[in-house]
TrEMBL record:
Domain of life, source organism: Bacteria
Species name: Lysobacter panacisoli
InterPro entries noted in UniProt: LEA_2
Domain Late embryogenesis abundant protein LEA-2 subgroup: residue ranges: 52-134
Name of the molecule in the record: LEA type 2 family protein
Pfam families assigned: LEA_2
């Protein structure tokens, strides 16, 4: 009789534990964010206006506090540092765009000008760090390295996308 009683309580305890595990909600996953250039516009004063797309791949919102990325154009065309403190909150598995102004170094200017003049694509690399704070968490530094390509935008002089 006692064994049967013990078995019922054990089964009930297992069901309660299983239900408690189910009620914790979805997993809170923090994934490395990404950054990429959405658009680079060469301004009349020689500076670049860069629309930087920040992507949050986490399952929770994140606040992006600081960005410090080195931009290289055409593998050897050192363009400079993209630095910003956007204080921007991005929802789970979403993205947003910030604009960063850059006074590019000569090698970067030449590589971009050549791509625009010839109508060719130009590869670029972003390498550095993004500081972000997960919702209800501590700030974390994420290393970023992104290789991609920009192409002249048809009908938009001085614009690479």
């Amino acid at each position: 009789m006692k064994a049967r009683h013990w078995a019922r309580w054990s089964a009930l305890a297992l069901v309660v534990l299983w239900l408690a595990g189910c009620s914790s909600g979805p997993a809170r996953r923090v994934s490395e964010p990404s950054a990429r250039i959405q658009q680079l516009t060469v301004r009349a004063d020689g500076q670049w206006s860069i629309e930087l797309r920040i992507e949050n791949f986490s399952s929770i919102p994140m606040r992006f506090d600081a960005i410090d990325l080195h931009l290289t154009v055409a593998q050897q065309g050192d363009a400079g540092q993209l630095r910003a403190q956007p204080g921007l909150s991005i929802g789970p598995e979403s993205a947003d765009v910030i604009t960063v102004t850059l006074a590019p170094q000569a090698a970067g200017k030449i590589a971009a000008a050549d791509a625009l003049a010839s109508g060719r694509s130009v590869p670029y690399t972003l390498r550095g760090r993004v500081d972000a704070t997960p919702d209800e968490g501590k700030q974390r530094a994420f290393d970023i390295e992104r290789n991609s390509v920009l192409s002249p935008a048809p009908g938009l002089p001085g614009v690479l996308r």
